[in-house]
Amino acid sequence: MNPIERALRAVDRVQQRRRPLAVVVGVVKKYGDDRGGLLAALITYYGFVSLIPLLLLLSTALGFVLHGHPDAQQAVVDSALADFPIIGDQLRENVHSVQGSGLALVIGVAGLLYGALGIAQVLQHAMAEVWNVPGVRRPGYWPRLGRSLALFATLGTGLLLTTAAAALVGSALGGPAARIGGLLLSAAVNTLLFLACLRILTPKEVPARALLPGSVLAGPLFTVLQAFGAALVAHQLRHATAVYGFFATVIGLLSWLYLAAQVTVYAAETNTVLARRLWPRSLLQPPLTGPDEQVLEDIARQEARRPEQRVDVDFDGPAAGQDEKTGKTEQPEGPEQRPDSGA
After folding, report:
1. Using CA atoms, how far apart are residues 285 and 26, in angstroms rounded to an integer?
2. Helical H runs in 131-201?
3. Which of 30, 63, 94, 186 is most buried by its number of CB atoms within 10 A?
4. What are the tens digits of pLDDT across the range 230-274?
5. Is the CB of residue 149 less than 8 Å from the CB of residue 224?
C-alpha cells in the first residue's frame, strides 16, 4: 500500500466512524451513483424551456382569480419575476395574460400547459431515480399528468402565500427588521412548499416524514439562492456581457437554474440516505460496506421493466462490517426500517 492510499484509507476510516461525516459522504456518493449531475442538468434544461409558458400561464390564471384587482395581479407577477437573475426586467415587460374568448382561449391555455409539463414530468423522473423505483412500478402517463397539475397548483398557491406574507411583513416592520423578517418568513414558506412539492412528486409508498429532512435543508437554501443568487450571478457575468453579449444573460439564467436544480436533487438524496440508513459508505473499494452493496443492489433492481422480469444481485465475499457467518452489517443507531427499495 503506497503512502497516498494509506492516507486515504485513514481518512476513510475516520469518516465511517463519525456519523455526521458518514451521512454527508453517503449523500454525496448517492448523488454520484444516481448520476445526480445529469438529473440536475435535465431539470435545468426543462426548467429553462418551461419558464415562459409557466409565466404566461400564471399571468392568465391570475387574470381570472384576481379579476378586477390589477394591482394584486402585478404584485404577484413581480414577486415571481424578482428572483430571476439578469432577465427579470425583460420578462416583466413581456409576460402578459393570454387574451381571447371561448375556443381561442382554451387552445392558448392548453398550449401553455403542454409547454410547461416538461419540468413537472422530469421532476417526477428525478424523484423516481433518487428513490430507485423500478421501471415496472413507475406511474403511467395519466397519473403523472395528474401529479403535474397538482404541482402547478401547489406552486401557484405558494407564490400567492409568499407575496401576501412579504406584504404583511413589509407593512408591519420597517428597515433592516423587515428584511430579516422577510427572509425568515420566506425560509419557512419555502420549506413547507418544498415539502408539499416532494409529497406530490415522490412515490406514495415513501412516508411524508421521510421527506422532511431534505425540505428543512432545501427551504433556507432556496431562500439564500433567491436573495443572493441573482446578485452573485450578475456579479460573475458583469464583464462577460462585453464578450458574450446577449448570450451572457442566457448563461446567467442557466447557471441560476442549475444551482436550484442541484439543491433539489441533493435535498431528495438526503431524504433517501437518512430514510434507508445508507451510511457509512467507503471512499476506496474493496471492501464494500453494507450500504455500498445496498445502493448498488437498488440501482440494479430499478432497471426492471416487465412484471415477469426478475433481477438478482449477488456480491463476492462479505461487505465491510459484515459478519461472515450471519451476513449482518453493523449500523449506527437509527430507524430499524427503511422504505422498500421499490417505493
Report:
1. 15
2. 141-172, 176-201
3. 30
4. 666 666 666 665 566 667 777 778 888 999 999 999 999 999 999
5. no
Write the pLDDT tens digit of every residue in 119-166.
999 999 999 999 999 999 999 999 999 999 999 999 988 888 887 776
The distance from CA 334 to its chain's CA centroid, rounded to whole angstroms, is 25
C-alpha gyration radius of the chain: 23
Q: Say which residues have a Cβ less than 8 Å from residue 113's Cβ, sequence separation at least 6.
A: 53, 57
What are 322's strand-pairing partners? 329
Residue 207, in any domain of the structure: yes
DSSP β-bridge partners for residue 320: 289
pLDDT of amino acid 339: 46
Alpha carbon distance, N-terminus to C-terminus of the chain = 41
Is 288 a member of any domain?
Answer: no
Q: Is the preceding omega at residue 134 within 30 degrees of 0, hence cis?
A: no
Instruction: Look up residue 319 and give its DSSP letter.
Output: P
283 close to 15: Cβ distance less than 8 angstroms: yes
The C-alpha angle with vertex 191 and arms to 189 and 197, in degrees rounded to 5, equals 100
pLDDT given at position 319: 62
Residue of 320, 328, 258, 326 lying closest to 284 (CA atoms): 320
Query: Which one, of 45, 204, 53, lies nearest residue 117 by Cα?
Result: 53
Ranges of the chain with pLDDT below 70: 81-101, 166, 170-174, 230-246, 318-343
pLDDT, position 275 = 96
Q: At 280, give phi and psi (nearest 5°).
A: -80, 150
265 to 30, 40, 215: CA distances (angstroms): 10, 7, 11
Tell me whether residue 286 is in a domain.
no
Say what the pLDDT of residue 343 is.
42
Is the sign of the CA dihedral 309, 124, 299, 271 positive or negative? Answer: negative
Question: According to the model, what pLDDT value does residue 248 have?
Answer: 72
Tell me which residue range forms the domain holding 71.
Answer: 37-276
The set of cell numbers assigned to 25 is 459522504
Number of compact structural domains in the chain: 1
pLDDT for the residue 336: 41
Amino acid at the residue 133: V
